Amino acid sequence: MILTMDTNQLRGRMAASSRHFRERRVDPRGADVLLGRGHSLHPGNLAYRRIICKYLPTYSAAKTNKEKTKITKQIVAQVRRSGGRFLKEDPHGDKMLEMGDDNVRLRVGQVCFLFA
Prior knowledge:
The chain has 116 residues and is of the alpha+beta class. 54% of the residues lie in helices and 15% in strands. The chain is built from four helices and four strands. The chain has a four-stranded mixed β-sheet. The chain is elongated.
């Protein structure tokens, strides 16, 4: 049996995977949020923490997951508007991997949950 996939299905799968990792290896910039241990004093991480603190009261008061998701999207959008990207260390190289919106939103939600 031969399985075929039309162009729309293929685009959908490619878009879904790009929301997790953009598969671009990049050098970090000052506005970037560096995920993982040992980056707490990076300027982008300091700005990210200030943004999180600004949204925590709203996140804590949110009653539904839909409201909380909206807040995490706002946080991600604010970081991106300021020129920041969310980067994760590449285990196979000396550069960083840019993370996609789905993984970033989940991580932001975890941080908000822990500190709310």
